[in-house]
Here is the input.
Amino acid sequence: MKIMTKAKSASALPLNTILSGDCIEVMQSLPEASVDLIFADPPYNLQLKGDLHRPDNSQVDAVDDAWDQFSSFAAYDRFTREWLKAARRLLKPNGAIWVIGSYHNIFRVGAALQDAGYWILNDVVWRKSNPMPNFRGKRLTNAHETMIWASKQEGGKYTFNYEALKSLNEGIQMRSDWVLPICTGHERLKNEDGDKAHPTQKPESLLHRVLVGSTNPGDVILDPFFGTGTTGAVAKMLGRDFIGIEREAAYRKVAEKRLRGIRKFDREALEVSTSKRSEPRVPFGQLVERGMLRPGEELYSMNQRHKAKVRADGTLIGEDIKGSIHQVGAHLEGAPSCNGWTYWCFKRDGKKVPIDLLRQQIRAEMANRPN
Here is the structure.
């Protein structure tokens, strides 16, 4: 992993590199029309007033870093217009952008996107399955963030892997409200002092869905607010190239270490699809998004007669069949139907573990979620 202060030349594209510096200046140094997709997690301009405490009087580790502070809405708007202009210059004619934000900034960003000539395709609500509660009890619990997906221009032939997202959602058309957990546990990166490395680290499951749905292997993805490198980590796993821009040395250090430990999934696993009961439905693809199972990992039939490989979009590939966990199991058994949840298992430490145990784990989380 390389960290550079700027591109080597006007024609050079520093792939799989973290660039150090101001995002606007760095973007202006990169070659025009060279990027397929941009994922941007800009400062939210939270405008915090004073400290926030829990009921037990412990202080909440809120976003109070200098990079999130602007003197006024006008100053934030100027910054937004400038980085969006620089970003649009980098997009290929059929390129697209995703921007994520909260109610503090996303409406201002949306207007700036339209003013800059982007064409809004969708807004997506990321509904957090485990949000931070509202400790003061004076507002609704802020349980979601909004992402805007826009093409560079009206009529652009942007990438949209409709069937892949449908497969990831177990055969049901993907909606614009995504229920995914925030970073917790092993996914939450820590610094040398044991504290959160970044206050707004995004979960890999979110970027997995974005990149599977709107890019293809080999595409170039730019993240101008790279932070601790979630975009780069998921891009690398999924066989995409990335360019990260990050001005904070502490974040670059964490991202560099993280990316050294990431491996690319094998080519077959990177392919994606082209064209019930009272308990909550859990798509098999969610196990892949959350890292419970990894693309390229092998599943085995409980009778040990067959095996298949997990793909990035939540489908399986067997000897002569591709499809859902149910379709592949039915084909291999020569049966009209198959319950893939009870048919397939994976191996841990030499022992068979039914994939349904992972579904039960997610259902337990959902049952314990506050109303």
Observations:
- The chain is about 30% helix and 20% strand.
- The longest strand covers residues 91-101.
